[in-house]
Amino acid sequence: MHNSPQRREFLQQSLAAATLWSLLPDSLKAEERTNVSLSLSNFTVDITPPKGHSLCGGWITPVVDVTDSLDAHGIVLQGAGKPMVLMAIDWTALSNGAHLLWRTKIAEAVGTTPERVAIHCVHQHNAPFACLEAQAIVDAQGDLPHIVLEDYLHDCIDRIAESAKDSLKAAVPVTHVGKGEAKVEKVASNRRIYRDENGVIKAMRGSSCKDPKIRAMTEGTIDPMLKAISFYNRKNRVAAIHYYATHPMSYYGDGLVTSDFVGIARKRLQQEDASCHHIYFTGAAGNVSAGKYNDGSHPVRPVLAQRIYDGMTRALENTEISSVKSVSWRSIEMLPEVRSSFNKEDLMKVISNKEGAVVSRNRPSYMLAWLNRVERKQPIILSSLGINDISTIHLPAESFIEYQLRAQKLAPDTFVATAAYGDGGPWYLPVKEEYPAQGYEVRVAFCEPSVDDVMTAGIKKLLGV
């Protein structure tokens, strides 16, 4: 069992270190190696929450039962400087100190540094949402449901770190890398499509939508392509990481834990292709969901899963393979401006209002946690893995699809695959043009529109453009 003083000591030490990092005049860290002897190991850990645990931050039905497991899937790459870790977890979000804690623990386990560990949530909603700072704020109230059970959170990362370390013993050479993509039909659609004559959002087309008028509207701005990066030991494909940008929920709120349609698709592919470790990353889907093609009825889930599965298999079929010639890892810190409307006293008044609904009290706890984080200058880490002409981009939170499309446009000769839902601290990250349009995503964004310029500058440096 973990005791509170140990947790507080770790957070104090890590936050102090983060404050020092933010003072560096140029935080870009870049390392490229050629003629490498790359190797890969993989790990999988079951991180399904126990019965009664909160889901999606504590304002929907907690765990009643488990439909299918939630997992952490990762790979460790060695042979190009210190080890590099890519990991996707079937949780809603992992934010602030919790995200830093997990990266630090895994880094210690495999002998690397935290900025070379990329952890991303797939963002299912019948799943946990972890923020230790928000949990502390909620704990102080005494009458709010937990956000995340800390013993469970620490148990998960301890088992993940141990599994990542153990995986190193079974590392296999990576001689070739592959890139492939395929169009996914009738899954992704933009949520912010219903606007008035001034461009202001009238209604959001959510993960599901029952309004036939809104569902009939155009798909809007999306990235229809599912991308796959494959790793080979000579002719044997040993790992494949898949990227697609959409909110991954068909229906939720019933207390039945599930990896939902993207998880079902990945699990089917894993079962059929057992010699290859498959990982799924959700792209920049802050304003993208399946709402045009999903009315929320139960029969739609397997239909959406089939379409994702088809995209995965076709992306692998379309893969171009080349020998590994160069490997790089780049990381950069960013510290965006907190929303100017955030005020500690006002947030605490809402949080401590015993008459308020759970969601109206819990959500401000995340806002306050982010405000406190920006004040102590703990940065967000953006990072990128590069292999030959392939680059991954690792973005935080609910980044808008425009960031993903922008990255591809900035580097047209590079195969760019984007994972979002990294550090969930800032919640939604719209592009600056969308702030005047208002709507849900802008209303619950924790940063000023200037975050766009900061994110874009960071993406350019990661891509070296």
Share of residues in helices: 25-40%
Mean pLDDT level = 93
Q: Enumerate the strands of the largest sheet in spatial order, edge to edge or round the barrel.
A: 1-20-21-22-24
Distance between the termini: 47 Å
Rg value: 21 Å
- Strand portion, in percent? 25-35%
| Low-pLDDT runs | 1-25
> What class, by secondary structure content?
alpha/beta
How does the SSE layout of this entry go?
Blueprint lengths: L3 H18 L7 E6 L4 E8 L18 E2 L4 E8 L5 E6 L3 E3 H15 L6 E5 L7 E3 H10 L8 H18 L4 E2 L2 E8 L5 E2 L3 E2 L5 E3 L8 H4 L9 E9 L2 E9 L11 E2 L2 H13 L4 E6 L5 E2 L10 H18 L2 E4 L2 E9 L9 H8 L6 H18 L4 E8 L2 E5 L3 E2 L1 H10 L4 E5 L8 E2 L10 H4 L7 H13 L2
Parallel strand pairs: 3-16, 5-7, 6-8, 15-17, 22-24, 23-25
Antiparallel strand pairs: 1-20, 2-4, 2-9, 4-5, 10-14, 10-19, 11-18, 12-13, 14-15, 20-21, 21-22
Summarize it:
The chain is 32% helix and 26% strand.
What does this structure look like?
This protein has 465 residues and is an alpha/beta fold. The chain has helices spanning 4-21, 96-110, 132-141, 150-167, 212-215, 260-272, 300-317, 344-351, 358-375, 401-410, 440-443, 451-463; strands spanning 29-34, 39-46, 65-66, 71-78, 84-89, 93-95, 117-121, 129-131, 172-173, 176-183, 189-190, 194-195, 201-203, 225-233, 236-244, 256-257, 277-282, 288-289, 320-323, 326-334, 380-387, 390-394, 398-399, 415-419, 428-429. The strands form eight sheets. Strands 1-20-21-22-24 form a five-stranded mixed β-sheet, with helices on one face. Strands 7-5-4-2-9 form a five-stranded mixed β-sheet, with helices on one face. Strands 17-15-14-10-19 form a five-stranded mixed β-sheet.
